[in-house]
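Worked example 2:
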Amino acid sequence: MNILLWHVHGSWTTAFVQGKHRYLVPVNEARDAWGRGRAQTFDWPDGVEEHPIEEIRDVDIAIVQRPEELDRVPSHVPVIYVEHNTPKGDVPETRHPMADRDDLIVAHVTHFNELFWDCGSTRTRVVEHGIPDPGRRYTGEVPRAAVVVNEARRRGRVTGTDLLGRLERAGVPVDLFGMDAAALGGVEDLPQDRLHTEMARRGVYVHPIRWTSLGLSLVEAMHLGMPVVALATTEAVEAVPPQAGVISTRVDVLAEAALHFLRDAPAARAAGDAARAHALQRFGLDRFLHDWDELLTEVMSGADRAGLGAR
């Protein structure tokens, strides 16, 4: 199957392109938001091809992740719109930009998203995250908490950036990783493999994010075998089982839990082992690719194609 998709979310796309298909990714000279092409810091297989959008031909199906992409997809090509984000604004009443359409399907990455977005009559599916297994790397040799947030300063309260100071005042030493983390005194942006190694050297992973679907860094930390401490918001309450760490809406509880794992190595290892076992089962790459293949086949079937290929 020839799949057109833009390189929007590096971690999600890294998992998606591990499948058996041919992936056609637009590229332009600037390698900007509309033409990033192949990833520069993620490991993508040879089945991912970058081409200028005007040269991409023989597309069987398009994966759309931004409303503006629809105008760039040929009208005869079936579309699946992937919604990565939680709704913004008046959340209980938020209408999805693809609401009330019969020419596409919205694929949510979490059940929380599917619950909170109002998609009207548009058909929806949920395909939960899955990632390539980075391996169990946890050592915990650095007695500090790892936090991974991209653009932490700009995104502020959404990503819980303001909570990092509260954790540190409670005695939890924090190392912030991610895009632009250095601007807040964190660690410079690292290639994915090195980031995983550095995360796993820390004693605990802390996930302070208030309002995103489900940060893939949390899923990655669990795969790495790290004990996790997370805000009990959005999909985290489903993603983290009790034996894998602590989730709460109370910052003091999170700080206490983080300090516990930093001070008690056997407890940290036990929680990390449980986190990894759970992540491999629920967020494994094979399950993710299987679910996507089922959805792609459904959309490409004759019955669906009659409706979804006519915008």
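The chain has a mean pLDDT of 94. Residues 2-131+285-306 form a domain with the Rossmann fold fold (CATH 3.40.50).
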